[in-house]
Amino acid sequence: MSIASGPITQICWVTDDIDATERLLGEQFGVPSWMRIPDVRFGPDTTTLRGQPVDCTLHVSLGYAGDLQVELIQPVGGPSIHQEYLDAHGAGLHHVCFAVDDVDTACAAAEAAGTPVLMRGSMMDGEIEFAYVDGSAGGAPYIELARIGPQMQAFYDAVRNG
Predict the structure, then answer these.
(1) How far apart are CA 65 and CA 83, in angstroms?
(2) pLDDT, tens only, 82-108
(3) Counts for the chain of helices (H) and strands (E), in that order
(4) CB neighbours (10 Å) of residue 144?
(5) Residue pair 128/77 in contact by the 8 Å Cβ criterion
(6) DSSP of 32-78
(7) For residue 51, which phi and psi values (nearest 5 degrees)?
């Protein structure tokens, strides 16, 4: 059974300097504009890290390279796989994201395949549900599985259309 069959909707960099990463990807790689969302909090009532409640805050910036969403994350407080990656490896490509219809089903398939689910959460009253699984066996640090609701998709479309 497949964990996710696509499409890949996003790639993400984790950085300790979101301004510099926006400039690099904008000037050198053609991401025309960014939507910065500072201080996005993922609280312990909706987010877990290795099965335990977690409270973390991230700066997020979204842009598009064609139809592919480019996400930048700068951890600013609390434990997360984003901060773990930054501490262990420095800034860099963190994950690719596959769209899924059901995060619970995708996580069950991942666990059944021996691919650990490391971090899970939701926001906006379930408008977004996500899980990060260990992608190291395939050469990617993490793979995100995400279900995006219609309100969030409309926001993403507005960002893409500038």
Answers:
(1) 25
(2) 999 999 999 999 999 999 999 999 999
(3) 4, 10
(4) 25
(5) no
(6) ---EEEEEEEE-TTTEEETTEE--EEEEEEEEEETTEEEEEEEEEES
(7) 85, -5
